[in-house]
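S.,

Sequence below, as promised.
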Amino acid sequence: MSASRNGTNPSNSHEFADEVRTAIRSNPQFAFEGVLGVSLTRKPGSKEPVARCPFHDDTRPSLRINLDKSTYCCDPCSKGGDLFHLAREVWGLDFPACVSRLADLLGVIHSNGSPARHHALRTCSTPRRVGRRVARRLRYIVRDLDAIEKATHHRTEYADGGKDMPWEPAGIKPAELPLYMIEKTTDSMDGETVVLCEGEKAAAALWERRILAVGTVTGADLEGRKVH
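The prediction came back faster than expected:
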């Protein structure tokens, strides 16, 4: 079998991923907390720990973690999978880079004795800050009246109160986008009240309470200042 372009045998890469899986199974709670950036908690009477879901505005922790299987599931947004899938979604990395970053997190060493190194190859343009504890990550997908996706607003909240709110794709002009959740108003009845909120977060919170709402879309720079 030929070596890959960077000199790594593909079979060794699969073996290394298996080593990372073994490390995850040996301490799954630590692994999930490291990816999510928050501590897992347990609801009274529940065997599965939970955390706030990073994929929607989760006012009540709904991301359930099965520590025995090293899997997760969020019923409100139907997200689920193993820790590799969660890490790829949260970190925005491809699979090889995700394996390397998990190895760094869990202290897994390559068979040649060298520590893992992950590459900064990302599947989205969301910037990340190093050295700050993440409180939660949210994602708001903006669609038009025909439910066609126009842009995604990422929101990362840090434990120190700071936040990042980049857009995907990069360079999008939020002022030209439709209102958040506008596509859901097409089924509303004539005369039905629609609440207009400032920002996607407020609109999402009202929808969780079954209140018809739309939100203005906002942009922010790295310090949280509005840019329009």
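Residues 134-216 form one domain.

Coffee later?
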